[in-house]
């Protein structure tokens, strides 16, 4: 039952996203959490200016080679924000060489939100993300990312037919299990759509109008943690949604805390829900 997971994403030293949330959240869920940092930034890129970036692309193959020599392998590999197209290629090779039999390959395309690519990414990066996502076992795109992966037109408001079309396009591209986040059919509600074995299940919950930075990473990390505790994809998706909502609720009254969510304050709730 003690699982070992590798997560590959950047370290944003300040800002509560990527590795600084994945490592504590997945560890709190009870899995051995190993990291491969794709880059080190002084802060994340959402709302800060003048941040420093140290790209670690060239370190990745050496770390991989050392682990192969040591016989180190993983029950799951979860990738988030990656710094370059070259890193996407390296991750493909890491999937081939460091997975144990039956390991989950989980990809959060972490490149866009609200209809826009994050600062520093272009269409070529989004294109390079396609084979990584379509070769993975589980992907966790938001609607913007799903549109970039499928060529679907991004819309602010939509109906179920639009979401069905996106899911059909993802499946046609080769996506296996899809956790589509931020699917909202009303001003008061949002939710997550789980597409698995050709079937859809939707978990709807309360929507908080303010969108917070880093919640995609908090969500994906809690999902991975719950999945490795033996939860089904749907149950893990639901647990992660409830946890992320609680993190946002615990943050929104503090206007100084605009750069991330206070995910630490809700860890006891997450641990309780994965233990049930
Ligand atoms: O949360 C996604 C993310 C991760 N890492 C960095 C980012 C972002 C989003 O903007 O800038 C460096």
In short:
This protein is of the alpha/beta class and about 280 residues long. Helices cover about 40% and strands about 25% of the residues. It has helices at about 20-30, 60-70, 85-100, 125-135, 145-150, 160-175, 215-230, 235-250, 265-275; strands at about 5-15, 30-45, 55, 75-80, 100-105, 110-115, 115, 140, 175-180, 190-195, 200-205.
Overall pLDDT = 97
Q: Tell me, briefly, the overall form.
A: globular
Q: Pick out the low-confidence regions.
A: none
Record the strand order, biggest sheet: 3-2-1-4-5-8-9-10-11
Classification by helices and strands: alpha/beta
Strand content: 15-25%
Radius of gyration over alpha carbons? Answer: 17 Å
Work out the helicity level.
25-40%
Secondary-structure element series: EHEEHEHEEEHEHHEEEHHH
- SS element count, helices: 9
Main beta-sheet strand count, sense and barrel state: 9 strands, mixed
Q: What is the first-to-last residue Cα distance?
A: 16 Å
Bound molecules: 3-hydroxy-5-(hydroxymethyl)-2-methylisonicotinaldehyde
Q: Tell how many strands the DSSP assignment holds.
A: 11
Question: What does the model show?
Answer:
The chain has 276 residues and is an alpha/beta fold. The chain has nine helices and eleven strands. It has helices at 19-28, 60-70, 85-98, 123-135, 143-150, 160-173, 215-228, 233-249, 267-275; strands at residues 4-14, 32-43, 53-55, 74-79, 99-107, 112-113, 116-117, 138-139, 177-180, 189-196, 199-206. It has a nine-stranded mixed sheet with strand order 3-2-1-4-5-8-9-10-11, with helices on both faces. Helix 1 links the parallel strand 1 and strand 2 (32-43). The longest helix is centred in the last third of the chain and has 17 residues, at 233-249. The structure holds 3-hydroxy-5-(hydroxymethyl)-2-methylisonicotinaldehyde.
């Amino acid at each position: 039952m003690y699982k070992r997971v590798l997560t590959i994403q950047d370290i944003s030293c300040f800002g509560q996203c990527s590795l600084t949330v994945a490592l504590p959240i997945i560890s709190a869920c009870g899995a051995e959490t190993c990291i491969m940092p794709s880059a080190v930034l002084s802060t994340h890129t959402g709302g800060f200016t003048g941040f420093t970036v140290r790209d670690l692309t060239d370190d990745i193959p050496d770390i991989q080679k050392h682990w192969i020599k040591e016989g180190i392998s993983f029950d799951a590999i979860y990738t988030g924000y990656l710094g370059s197209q070259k890193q996407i290629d390296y991750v493909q090779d890491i999937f081939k060489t460091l997975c144990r039999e039956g390991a989950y390959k989980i990809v959060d395309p972490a490149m866009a939100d609200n209809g826009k690519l994050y600062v520093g990414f272009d269409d070529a990066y989004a294109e390079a993300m396609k084979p990584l996502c379509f070769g993975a076992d589980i992907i966790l795109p938001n609607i913007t990312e799903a549109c970039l992966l499928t060529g679907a037109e991004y819309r602010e408001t939509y109906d179920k037919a639009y979401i069905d079309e996106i899911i059909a396009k993802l499946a046609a591209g080769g996506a296996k299990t899809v956790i589509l986040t931020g699917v909202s059919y009303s001003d008061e509600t949002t939710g997550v759509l789980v597409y698995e074995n050709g079937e859809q299940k939707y978990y709807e919950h309360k929507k908080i109008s303010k969108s917070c930075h880093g919640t995609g990473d908090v969500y994906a990390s809690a999902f991975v943690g719950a999945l490795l505790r033996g939860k089904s994809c749907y149950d893990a998706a639901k647990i992660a949604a409830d946890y992320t909502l609680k993190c946002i609720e615990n943050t929104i009254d503090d206007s100084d805390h605009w750069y991330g969510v206070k995910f630490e304050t809700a860890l006891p709730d997450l641990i309780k829900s994965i233990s049930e």
